[in-house]
């Protein structure tokens, strides 16, 4: 365990090398005047403006609004994706019925949904949350149905021999065996949700982190713009890390190590 | 053999044939198999691979339906799987997300209270010698231990008939012998009817009351041999070797080489 945690510290440290080197190079090039500081503010200036926004509570306000939208949209989208994905995975008829409409709707880029959603739902919260829900829905749907279709026939036979009811089979055999797929879907879904919120806010909003970028562009405040972009990157990373953590806990049985002869 | 506990655990197989319909045409797998297995008897079915012996077992279990003929267990026609007929497969088929204890508990069919459930699980963990491993996950167990868990899971409903489909085929030679002794111990404790499908002739002789020799596909019963050797059986005794020779004769009768070459 000790050796393992040492290794993970090492892995994290190695992961930091590239970003830090990148920032240092950026800072040096900026100070020497090689990079135009009016469009490429140095990292130290970005950091100062970031801290300034934090101290005035501006960054937190926008971030919280965006996160709240992500949570709402993600919940709606993943629940729908799970339920419909399960139905499609279980029933060949449902699969045949839905596959053409899924094939048509899924490739539509998220940006193309925005005008349609604004037309239907207005420019309030509903259109943004719906966009995030759509973005979350697809990866969860596809992975859930694939996971359920992939469930091991041999394990299903065990349930049949032990005379389990359909509900017991679903809850105790089919869904648990699809968990690794479902989690992959949820992780992709969170990533997509975060992308969607920024897209929606950048196009039509009066608050949120995506709005902050567009607003800073209009007022030509590059340090604010870059602060917001970097915050988006870091928060996206943290969201993924949280889900990875949860996945590791829930799917402890799925780890391939510890095999004994 | 006499019936135990008054429960009829006999298996009656009447004219069972099976034809698989494939895109390339019909594939006959079993050809009019008739066999009566008495309550509490230990029967082995031996045959070369692909002779339909696994299909035969799946039809008895109700997992597969026969194209013609019927199977009766305890006088009742088999039309679907039942907890009264336990099946143990070559792969242990444990749920990797459940611990040993939870895997065994998955088998419990009838409603029991928490206390009785605990007792039942504890008793079966002990029966297969896995005390101390209750909270281990399948990936942490060896092949032999996994197979013990699957045996416990199959036994927890006290099935009258236990079907074993090459249960030790994937285990190493020493573990296999160990597991064979375990099965004999469990058989004498539970008094269930056992039907074992195997390609290991020695395993069949070591365990069974009678051995069914199946032909190549489509499988039919070539011969049924009685094993009149008292248990525990010595694998190197003369009667043991005589039966082994008899069985091998069936398999290599058409071969140009003499039987001694194979033995």
> Could you estimate the helical fraction of the residues of chain B in percent?
25-40%
Radius of gyration of chain B: 19 Å
Given this structure, which CATH class of the domain at 43-149 and 185-251 in chain A is correct?
A: Mainly Alpha
- Low-confidence stretches of chain A are none
Helices and strands in order, then pairings?
The complex is a heterodimer of chains A (261) and B (263).
Chain A: H1 2-31, H2 43-55, H3 58-90, H4 92-105, H5 110-121, H6 125-149, H7 153-161, H8 166-203, H9 209-218, H10 222-250
Helix pairs in contact in A: 2-10, 3-4, 3-6, 3-8, 3-9, 5-6, 6-8, 8-9, 8-10, 9-10
Chain B: E1 11-22, E2 25-37, E3 42-46, H1 53-61, E4 68-73, E5 76-77, E6 85-88, H2 100-106, H3 114-127, H4 143-155, E7 161-165, H5 173-190, E8 193-198, H6 201-207, E9 210-214, E10 221-226, H7 238-252, H8 259-262
Parallel strand pairs in B: 3-8, 3-9, 6-7, 7-8
Antiparallel strand pairs in B: 1-2, 1-4, 4-5, 9-10
Helix pairs in contact in B: 2-3, 2-4, 6-7
List keywords for this structure.
heterodimer; A: 261 residues; mainly alpha; MetI-like fold; 10 helices; globular; B: 263 residues; alpha/beta; Rossmann fold; 6-stranded mixed sheet; 4-stranded antiparallel sheet; 10 strands
């Amino acid at each position: 365990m000790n050796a393992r945690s040492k290794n993970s510290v090492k892995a994290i440290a190695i992961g930091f090398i590239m970003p830090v080197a990148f920032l240092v190079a950026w800072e040096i090039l900026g100070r020497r005047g090689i990079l135009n500081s009016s469009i490429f503010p140095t990292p130290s200036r970005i950091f100062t403006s970031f801290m300034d926004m934090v101290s005035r509570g501006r960054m937190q306000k926008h971030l919280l609004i965006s996160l709240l939208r992500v949570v709402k949209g993600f919940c709606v989208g993943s629940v729908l994706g799970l339920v419909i994905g399960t139905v499609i995975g279980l029933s060949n008829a449902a699969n045949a019925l839905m596959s053409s409409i899924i094939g048509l709707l899924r490739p539509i880029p998220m940006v193309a949904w925005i005008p349609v959603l604004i037309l239907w739902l207005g420019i309030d919260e509903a259109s943004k949350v719906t966009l995030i829900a759509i973005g979350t829905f697809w990866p969860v749907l596809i992975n859930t149905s694939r996971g359920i279709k992939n469930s091991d026939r041999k394990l299903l036979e065990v349930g049949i021999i032990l005379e389990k009811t359909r509900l017991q089979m679903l809850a105790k055999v089919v869904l648990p065996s699809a968990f690794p797929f479902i989690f992959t879907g949820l992780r992709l879904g969170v990533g997509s949700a975060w992308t969607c919120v920024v897209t929606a806010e950048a196009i039509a909003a009066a608050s949120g982190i995506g709005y902050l970028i567009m607003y800073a562009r209009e007022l030509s405040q590059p340090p604010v713009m870059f602060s917001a972009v970097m915050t988006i990157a870091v928060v996206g990373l943290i969201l993924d890390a949280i889900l990875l953590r949860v996945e590791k806990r829930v799917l402890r049985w799925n780890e391939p190590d510890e095999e004994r002869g | 053999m006499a019936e135990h506990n008054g429960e009829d655990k006999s298996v009656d197989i009447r004219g069972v044939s099976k034809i698989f319909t494939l895109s390339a045409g019909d594939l006959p797998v079993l050809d009019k198999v008739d066999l009566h297995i008495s309550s509490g008897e230990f029967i082995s079915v031996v045959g070369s691979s692909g002779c339909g012996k696994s299909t035969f077992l799946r039809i008895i279990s109700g997992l597969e339906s026969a194209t013609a003929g019927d199977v009766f267990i305890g006088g009742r026609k088999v039309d679907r799987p039942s907890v009264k007929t336990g099946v143990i497969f070559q792969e242990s088929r444990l749920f990797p997300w459940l611990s040993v204890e939870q895997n065994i508990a998955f088998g419990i069919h009838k409603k029991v209270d928490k206390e009785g459930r605990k007792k039942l699980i504890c008793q079966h963990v002990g029966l297969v010698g896995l005390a101390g491993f209750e909270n281990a996950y399948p990936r942490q167990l060896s092949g032999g231990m996994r197979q013990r868990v699957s045996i416990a899971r199959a036994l927890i409903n006290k099935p009258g008939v236990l079907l074993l489909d090459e249960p030790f085929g994937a285990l190493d030679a020493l573990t296999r012998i160990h597991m064979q002794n375990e099965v004999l111990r469990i058989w004498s404790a539970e008094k269930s009817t056992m039907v074992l499908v195997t390609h290991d002739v020695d395993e069949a002789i070591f365990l069974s009351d009678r051995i069914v020799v199946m032909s190549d596909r489509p499988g039919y019963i070539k011969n049924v041999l009685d094993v009149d050797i008292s248990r525990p059986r010595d694998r190197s005794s003369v009667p043991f070797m005589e039966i082994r020779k008899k069985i091998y004769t069936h398999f290599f009768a058409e071969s140009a080489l003499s039987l001694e070459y194979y033995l």
